[in-house]
Specification:
437 residues; mainly beta; 8-stranded mixed beta sheet; 6-stranded mixed beta sheet; 43% strand; disordered C terminus
């Protein structure tokens, strides 16, 4: 890193101007981060990076991942800046620049603000060694690397190799693109995902919310700085406000939904919607995994008639709430008939949890509105193997198995595989399967 501009949110690395955004991640893999003696503070923001001071004091050693640009002042919009120890080996490729060629010399190319000397390099095009003098042209994306660092600050670089990369700059007007990631900000008719501005002025659907995981299909606009999308090209893969809930119980009240290829059913008093995206499977009969699914297909078209003819109405549903709080099934499995009922998810704030310390008095709580009464001895908390009077808190992730009767899931005092409440505590970052059995 030759320069850090915290006001503009940019770095200078290997002659490239790197634009940082709210979606840029940082990771620090230096040995001192995890050292037991004299540890250093992990770099999590640009402020943690050091810049080059003169030709002998190099800045932080980083690898930058992101989108290549060939217009304006930015060469790369970064999605990840990874910090590592400065390499000491004299072989291999430790220094690299990749980007669009803006100028070609007799034995050099210019990539961003870096002049790459190819006089002693091996140049390859489509895997074939090619004379460097005629290997590349302006506008092509070239990757050049070497084992030895360039003089600092980096404006010239003697490359050991250079190759034509099978990439285009993201700002190539008219190119089709697909972008998937978390929405970092929204406007009146646009939003930003992974540093790319998505123009939604031609869409009739609502904008995604900040935090939503989306997939965008579109075409790069003529300005080279936005992605213009068609009316059906933005798909919300995971809503930021969604909550996952697992349910086990008998399915009742199966009815056709208001939209084509949808059905609703009731499980533990909860209305669950099944649609054409729901994964359906019948595990209720012996040898289910060896049956030919074409013989008696279970799909959204046959859903109502198949459920009506099934010998078991007991199901396990993995669901996720939509923007209005309705439960949508990601998967639904018919399992052998059973009197076991269960729910997995986050403990509700209302009504408040009541933790009992009396063996004969149950603790009470709810998960997504499902009332639960559990004997204190049947509560197992993550990290505690005993079945004493463990405490349940609002927001904890729990799996509860017991008996469903009169609108209440009851769990007795004897812990078995079919009668217990396991409390995993508050969800931690990286728990992507909350609420699933």
């Amino acid at each position: 890193v030759d320069a850090v501009d915290t006001t503009a949110g940019t770095l200078q690395v290997m002659g490239q101007t790197v634009q940082l955004t709210s979606s840029t991640n940082f990771s620090d893999h230096r040995a001192c981060v995890s050292a037991t003696t004299s540890p250093c503070t992990a770099v999590t923001t640009p402020a943690g990076l050091s810049a080059t001071t003169g030709p002998t004091a190099p800045g932080s050693y980083v690898a930058v991942h992101g989108y290549l640009y060939n217009a304006g002042a930015t060469n790369i919009v970064a999605t990840l800046v990874s910090v590592a120890d400065v390499p000491t080996a004299t072989t291999g490729v430790h220094f690299k620049a990749e980007g669009a060629v803006t100028a070609v010399g007799a034995s050099s190319v210019t990539i961003g603000g870096l002049t790459v000397d190819l006089s002693s390099a091996t140049c390859r095009v489509s895997g074939t060694t090619t004379p460097c003098a005629s290997a590349f042209s302006t506008g092509q994306v070239v990757a050049a690397g070497a084992a030895v660092a360039p003089p600092l600050p980096a404006t010239t670089f003697v490359a050991g190799f250079a190759r034509l990369a099978s990439k285009i700059s993201v700002d190539t007007a008219g190119s089709a693109v697909e972008v998937e990631g978390v929405v970092s900000s929204t406007g009146t008719s646009s939003f930003v995902v992974r540093g790319v501005t998505v123009d939604t002025s031609t869409l009739t659907t609502a904008l995604p919310a900040v935090g939503d995981v989306v997939r965008v299909l579109g075409t790069v606009s003529g300005t080279g700085q936005t992605v213009t999308v068609s009316a059906t090209s933005v798909v919300v893969l995971h809503a930021a406000s969604s909550v996952k809930v697992g349910l086990e119980g008998d399915a009742t009240a199966i009815t056709a939904g208001s939209a084509a290829n949808t059905f609703t059913l009731s499980v533990l008093g909860q209305t669950v919607t099944v649609n054409e995206k729901t994964r359906l499977i019948d595990m209720s009969v012996r040898g289910w995994d060896h049956r030919d699914p074409a013989g008696n297909p279970f799909n959204i078209t046959t859903f109502a008639t198949y459920m009506a003819a099934s010998a078991s109405s007991h199901v396990i549903a993995k669901t996720e709430t939509d923007s209005t709080g309705n439960l949508i099934a990601n998967s639904l499995a018919i399992v052998p008939a059973s009197n076991v009922a269960g729910v997995a998810g986050l403990v509700d704030a209302t009504p408040p949890v009541v933790n009992s310390t009396v063996a004969t008095t149950p603790s009470t709580l709810s998960v997504h509105g499902i009332a639960i009464e559990v004997a204190p001895a049947a509560v197992t908390v993550h990290g505690h193997n005993g079945s004493g009077f463990n405490t349940i808190a609002t927001g904890d992730q729990v799996v509860a198995l017991g008996t469903w009767s009169n609108g209440v899931l009851s769990i007795g005092a004897t812990v078995t595989l079919r009668n217990q409440l396991f409390d995993a505590g508050a969800p931690r970052e990286g728990h992507m399967d909350r609420g699933e059995f």
